[in-house]
Give the backbone structure.
Amino acid sequence: MTDTPATPEAMLERLKQSVQKSGFTTMLAAQPLKCWAGESEILLELRPELTQHHGFAHGGVIGALADNACAWAAASVAGDVVTSSYTLHFLGPALGERLRAKGRVIRAGKRQITVQADVLAEKGQDSKLVATALATIARVER
Amino acid sequence: MTDTPATPEAMLERLKQSVQKSGFTTMLAAQPLKCWAGESEILLELRPELTQHHGFAHGGVIGALADNACAWAAASVAGDVVTSSYTLHFLGPALGERLRAKGRVIRAGKRQITVQADVLAEKGQDSKLVATALATIARVER
Amino acid sequence: MTDTPATPEAMLERLKQSVQKSGFTTMLAAQPLKCWAGESEILLELRPELTQHHGFAHGGVIGALADNACAWAAASVAGDVVTSSYTLHFLGPALGERLRAKGRVIRAGKRQITVQADVLAEKGQDSKLVATALATIARVER
Amino acid sequence: MTDTPATPEAMLERLKQSVQKSGFTTMLAAQPLKCWAGESEILLELRPELTQHHGFAHGGVIGALADNACAWAAASVAGDVVTSSYTLHFLGPALGERLRAKGRVIRAGKRQITVQADVLAEKGQDSKLVATALATIARVER
C-alpha cells in the first residue's frame, strides 16, 4: 500500500484486493470489515477445518486473526507494514459461529506502531472476549 | 492425552491421531516429527495457500507452528495441555520450501510449563531462523 | 492477603502494610492509590536515582511499576498472587515529575488472572502514555 | 556509545562509565561483567532492599536486570540502543545471594535487535534459572 486511499471505503477495497494475493488469508476466508484511522475489524465464520482437538477454534486461527487485525490497524495509518512481534493471551475457549477481531493503534512511531487487538467469539447475539494481543508492527522502508 | 505412552514412537503415533481430529492442523498439513522428553519438532511443506501478499510464509502459519511446537513439547511432559499465552518474534522473511519448528521445555511447573520454540525456513540444505517464541502452556485440570 | 477486606479503604490500608515489607517497593517509594474491584493505581515521584543515562525514567522502574500495577489489580480480586509473566512495550521517553501506573483485570480465571496496565509520565497537568503492559498473574495456591 | 571500542575490556570500561550516569542501575548496584560480540553478563548482590513481601528478589529487580542484559548485549553489536519491548517469564522464586543475568543477541537487524536473556539466582556453588526474557531493542537513529 503506497498512498493511503482518501476514504474508508477505498481503503477497505484496497485491503480486500491485497487479501486476495494472500493465500493464507484467502484460505482462512477472513473478511476485512474496517481498516481506517488506526482501527481494524475482521470477521471469520467458523467451520470444522478451523477447530482443534478440544473442539474450539484453533489457537493458530486466533493468532492469525489477531496478527492481521494488528497489521491492518497499523496499515491504516502507516501504509505498507510487517509484523515485528506480538504477544497473544488466550482468555477462554473460542466456541461460537464466528470470530471477530478488532485492532486499535496505541501509538504510531516513526519506525514502529504499537497495536492492541481483541478477538471475540460470537454466537447469535452473544459475544465473548477469547483473546487479547499486543503487537509491534514495523513500517516497511522504501 | 491421558497416560503418557512409554516410547517416543508411541507418543508420536498418539499425537498424529490427535492431529487428525484437529481440522486446522490437518488443513495446514503440519507433520509431527518428535514429541518426547520436553522436545517437539514439526515439519510443514510450504505451498501457495500458506503465503501472504509479500510472498513469504504468512505470519499466521508461523504463529500456528510455533504455538503447536510449544504445546507439543509441553504435552510430552504434562499430558493434556492448552496454550495460555505466547510471544512471537519474527526474525526475517520466511522464504523456502518448508518450515521446521522445534520446541523445548524450559521449565515444567505444577500448573504451567514454560516453553521456547524456534521456527526455521529451509531450502535445500540451507536453514534459516525466521521466528522465535516463548510460551506459557497450562496443564488441563481433571 | 488472605480474606479480601470489605472496603476499598481497608484494602488500600492492607496493601500499604504489605508494601512496607517489600524492600524494593519501599526503595522505589511507589505509593498505592487504588486496589479495588479489578483496578489498581500507583504513583511514583521521579527523582535522579530513578533515571538512566538518556535522562528519563529507567526501564526497570517502569517495568517494576507496571508489574506492581498488574499484580495489585489481580490481588484486588484474587487475594495472594504472584506475577507469572508480563510483556512491556515502551511507547516513548518517560520524562516528567512523576509516573502513574494503572492496572485493570481483563479476565480472572480459576488459576490465572490476565491484566492490562498503562504507565503515564506526568508533568504539571500534562500526562503522556509511556508504556503499556499485558500480564499473567497466578493465584497462590494454599 | 558512538564508536564501538576495539577490545572487550575497553567496551566494559565504557559501559561502567555509562552505568554511573544511570541513577537506577547505580542504586541497584548491578555490576557489568561482559558486553561483547552480542553477549552480556551482569551480577547483582542481593540485599534486603531488593526483595519483596514473599522474601525473594522483587520482580522489578529481575525485570531491570533482564532489560539491562538485553540492552547491553544489543549495545555490544549496535552501539547506542533503547529497549523497545520485552517479555519476561518468571520461572521460580529468586532466592539466593546474588542474581546473574546473561544476554545473547539472536538476530541483529538494520533497525532492531532481538535478544534473549536468562536470570539466574546463585547461592554458593548452586545456580538456578529464575527468569527468561525475549526483547526487541531498537538502534538509536542519528
